[in-house]
Amino acid sequence: MHLMNLKPKLKVTMFVDTEADFYYTVPSPHFNSMDAIKWRMNKIAGRMFRYPWPSRKGFEHLVSAFKSYNQEAIFCVSGHLYLKECDGPYHFGIKQPQNPWYHPIIGKNWYHWDVGGNYKTLPGVYLGDLIEKEKNNKLFKFGLHGFAHEALTLESREVIDSIVKTAKHAAGLVGIKTEWFACPFELTEDEDDPDKVYEILRKHEIKNIFYSGKDKGLQIKRHFSVSPILKEHGMNKFWISNYFEGTSSKDRLKAIMNEIKENKYKEAVYCLGTHDFTHKNGDNVNEIIKFLKSEGFS
After folding, report:
1. Left if phi > 0, otherwise alpha if psi is -120 to 50, otherwise beta: which for 185?
2. Among residues of the chain, what percentage have pLDDT more than 70?
3. CA–CA separation, 33 and 253 (whole Å)
4. With contact defined as beta carbons under 8 Å apart, do 292 and 71 qualify?
5. 110 and 97 in contact (C-beta within 8 Å)?
6. Residue 59's domain is classified under what CATH number?
7. Number of domains present in the structure of the chain
8. 14-63 pLDDT, tens per residue?
9. pTM (2 decimals)?
10. Could you tell me the residue range of the domain that residue 54 belongs to?
């Protein structure tokens, strides 16, 4: 039988690192000096257009596209975004990140943005109203992405445990049990203590994690891969294959589509990620989903 008539063996899993306005409020440990300047400029621009910032609309655009094409997706959500309202800092006894890498960049503590409010007054740090509407949609699964996009491998077990516990609690307030996790900044497994994050996730009954290999401190050693699901560290590890964004060029989308075609009959999972805050419209996600449907990926 000709390959064109065969169903694909490759499974495509789409996931969304859902961090909304935390893109504007917290920096990356991998920033160089120019990145830090651009981040500060984005913060200023964000304040000028605070209601609503693009990130909330991005979440809405993705949900709309997935529903329109009957496309399954996994939203790994920064825990605070599960809330509809809060009274301010240090939710539920959460511990402050202790690694000092971020102090020179923001000059404040990690939770400096947390002044209290709700989804009407600060719609970019509260998505609980939107998530509650979609939580029973069979197309969607919901997981975690830290609590406020913390760099987990750089922290102690005590701090990681506090972050995961607090994020799970926040998700539970809108009736969601979280079994999926994507680590902020993809800081998932460090060569010097590879089980650290997994140990805490297992404790909190999280079974599935998106993964792209090991790092060593701030040295990036990870890479994309098209891989079967790995069973390691007591977790189901889904190796990230690529990312696309609402701002991605047509050439980048084409390259991803070609890579999926090349691996179409491989016994593996293609984990395709994106970020909610980049989708100011639905153009790119619509194009990706239409391609997947045309190639026989359900």
Report:
1. left
2. 94
3. 29
4. yes
5. yes
6. 3.20.20.370
7. 1
8. 999 999 989 888 899 999 989 888 888 877 776 665 544 557 899 999 99
9. 0.94
10. 3-294
Strands (E), 178-267: 180-182, 189-190, 208-211, 214-215, 230-232, 235-243
Q: What's the rounded Cα separation, in Å, for the pair 125 and 148? A: 9
Element (H, E) at 47: helix 33-48
- Helix (H) or strand (E) run with residue 270 in it: strand 269-275
Type of residue found at 22: F
266 Cβ neighbours under 8 A, 6+ residues apart: 9, 10, 226
Residue 207 burial (10 A CB sphere; 0-12, 13-18, 19+): middle
Q: 272-296, pLDDT tens digit by residue?
A: 999 999 999 999 999 999 999 999 9
Record the tokens describing residue 204, joined without a space: 């909190």
* First and final C-alpha spacing in the chain: 21
Give dist(CA 62, CA 5) in Å, integer: 31
> What pairing do the DSSP bridges indicate for beta strands 269-275 and 11-18?
parallel
| Residue 144: strand pairing partners | 77, 181
Q: pLDDT tens for residues 53-77? A: 557 899 999 999 999 999 999 999 9
- In 226-243, which positions are buried (b, 16+ CB within 10 angstroms) versus exposed (e)? bbebeeebebebbbbbbb
Between the alpha carbon of residue 209 and those of residues 65, 146, 181, the distances in Å are 24, 12, 5
Question: What is the phi/psi pair of residue 284, to 5°?
Answer: -70, -40
Give the integer Cα–Cα distance in Å for 218 and 153.
Answer: 9
DSSP letter string, 107-137: SS-TTTT---EETTTSTTS--HHHHHHHTT-
d(CA 101, CA 285): 34
